[in-house]
Amino acid sequence: MLKNTGDEKLEENIFEIVNQLNxxxxxxxxxxxxxxLASLNLRAGIKAKASTAYEAAIxxxxxxxxxxxxxxxxxQCQLTLTLYEEAAEATYLFGDxxxxxxxxxxxxxxxDNILDKMKVYETKIQAYIGLTKLQEAxxxxxxxxxxIGISFSTNITQLYIQEHLQQTQSKLMKKNIxxxxxxxxxxxxxxxxxxxxxxxxxxxxxxCNPGLLTLMVCEQINLSLxxxxxxxFAFACATYGFLLCTVEEDIDTGYQFGRLACELxxxxxxxxQKARVFQLTYIGIEHWKIHVHEIFPHLLEAYKICLETGxxxxxxxxxxxxxxxxxxxxxxxxxxxxxxxxxxxxLKQFKQENNYYYTKISHxxxxxxxxxxxxxxILLGGAFNEKKFILFYENINDRYALFQIYLHKLILxxxxxxxxxxxxxxxxxxxxxxxxxxxFFYFPVYCFYSSLALLAFYxxxxxxxxxxxxxxxxxxxxxxxxxxxxxxxxxxxKYYLIEAEKQRILRGKLEAIEAYEQAIVLATANKHIQEAxxxxxLCAKFYLEWGKTKIAKxxxxxxxxxxxxxxxxxxxxxxxxxYPQLLAPILIHxxxxxxxxxxxxxxTSITNSDNIRxxxxxxxxxxxxxxxxxxPLYIVPLRKS
Length: 641
Hints:
The protein is elongated, with a radius of gyration of 29 Å. Helices cover 72% and strands 1% of the residues. By secondary structure, the chain is mainly α. Strands 1-2 form a two-stranded antiparallel sheet. A hairpin with a 4-residue loop joins strand 1 and strand 2. The longest helix is centred in the last third of the chain and has 24 residues.
């Protein structure tokens, strides 16, 4: 079969040919024949690994290892090295970390120079990340960098960071951003290896040592400007653009670097870097300029590429952020719960424990709002156990995970009107906000809910604390105003709602009314349904506090239907409990539904064409304005369906 298959057909039939030859592997004695079969098994193993058939890949590669001679590290060094590299990666992807360690140890013992060891070092680092051994991953990454001549100070101060950033900016001032794509190519193997390991380092320092983030990014840019560009320059530009948006708040220039990163992908036709660049560009840069909903298709594309290239680490990051951003962007909770379940099952299968548990934080928040848990303020239930993981993340200094936990608890406690608790979570999440988190969508959301929580608690605070609260809210408000100028679809309604609540506290009624209306209109227009509902709710409370009960009813009913559209059962129940007088026109006992068309009671639930629960009532208790102006909106879809 092998003799009758031409080179052009060999790749197509490689599995069938190798499977047949491997049946007789024990009978092969000729050295040349063993070498040929070893080469064929290597090709089959690489192809199987690329197809995510990791178990088959391991089988082919182990067969090849057994075909090697005892002195293969000296007589067939390159073939032997490639085999062990591929086998180590395949066992990592399959989740057999014990076997991976054995293969890695062989390479570290037998390989002659540091460059030959780089790929297995990277595999081991990614395994540490997947197993949530972040400190071990960081220690190994920094150790490898030191072996190729790059080291960072152990005493990292803000002045030290700023000096490095200014040095990089000085070099770039002499360059036109659009022309950086035409810089000479980098060909020195040692520097290419350094850039590769620096790109691996990014995700680790982001989580457990944010102080290194700026230094690592500047090192990548400086090395490329001094020595030439490569496929890794795309990721360097993405990280630098992220840094500009985050640290320097230079969103326009940061956005240009994000675009340059995508252009460099095309220049180098680099599929293995594409997923990483897309992930960081769309998660850390694009939301400052475009609507967050427009980001989601790009993240799913990046996730698909990660799976195709075997980059399970970044597959985990990408789908984690996709799920969390979807929750914060107001995607239907019922639909999102199904998506998160599917994606976290995949993360578990891929042994990506780190991102699996990160995503489970949002999953538990979704379940809480859907009404699946007895106490919706606590992240404790079918998906996550905060009591267990807060202690765990504190022990390993996972600042990102702790921020995510307290951000979600802040949102839940605020929505459920436990303002004392939400004020405390503002401070707890704030302890972990410095570093990379400030470049992601999470930070503006944190500023938004922090401002609302502080203003809600304001009347209960001491005078001195009130001054501090207003100062912090004003600072967050200015940030939100700045962000809204660059990305109004994401941040304009947030700015107006903060301003409305601030004016409510300061007794600026006319200013508050205008700001509430702007927040409602903009949130609705930009499809942030949960924040449109929140704006209506806060406006209703404003009018209720003012004594304008009739107007308050209108806004509270709008809020009720908005939360209903989102699927937030726990929030709906909270409103029913706290504001029955405002919601009386649309509330009935849970077992008393009415057939709106026939005017009679029934025990079947009624849904409209958008799958949004509607709440029917006996017609004799419904005010005429509800009958003639609101009910037709819900009856028409029923007739269509």
